[in-house]
Amino acid sequence: GAMMDNRFATALVIACVLSLISTIYMAASIGTDFWYEYHTLSTAENVSEAGRSIWEEFVSKDADEKTYTDALFRCNGTVGLWRRCITVPKNSHWYSPPETDMTTNCISFSLSDQFVEKYIEPGNHNSGTDLNRTYLWRLQFLLPFVSIGLMCFGALIGLCACACRSLYPAIATGILHFLAGLCTLGLVGCYVAGIELLHRKLPLPEDVRGEFGWSFCLACVSAPLQFMAAALFIWAARTNRKEFTLLKAYRVA
Fold this sequence. Notes:
Blueprint lengths: L1 H30 L4 E5 L3 H16 L5 H10 L3 E2 L3 E7 L12 E7 L2 H5 L3 E3 L2 E6 L1 H34 L3 H34 L6 E5 L1 H39 L1
Antiparallel strand pairs: 1-2, 1-7, 2-3, 3-4, 5-6
Helix pairs in contact: 1-5, 1-7, 2-3, 5-6, 6-7
């Protein structure tokens, strides 16, 4: 029996470690601003004269999607789930040399920004609601929290399981991790689709390169970790149950 128990213990420990790492990755990716990055190849000279006005438009309460996306294009912008950032010269005086210190300034999406409608033509509210983009955006905002919630709930059940010295709840923990993995995959899918659709409406200028950043990669890595943890939890619980039944049958015989 000891040999078997070791195998389950090992599987469960590995599952818990994977679960912990994926939770940390998820939290880090929600909290950072590098889901998507724009690299502007010709900035310094054209930003310094317009820097101040771009910045004021970018932070204003009524900056619409087109306004802030144009600013992201022009100023090496980065976008997270919660914030958008641009890099502008520290002091935008017309006489300062173009290679002035650059500073990165960020502004958060408010809760109403997260749920506001997206328009068919970004920035033009007469063009009607773009339902696809509106719901993709809302999902990419909600799914990571659902994912983390499921994993934390799974962890609670797991703790109870340890306290009761029973492996049955490990199946529930496994299923919750599997659902969390699906949510994370959904989040990644929604984000990619949303960016694709936005760039169809607002194509990148000639001298701007866009790419998914490391925050996005953390979420991508988090999903397989959640599935692996789920598989280990379920495997340990099921195999252990089988062997337990066999052992009982053997004792009776």
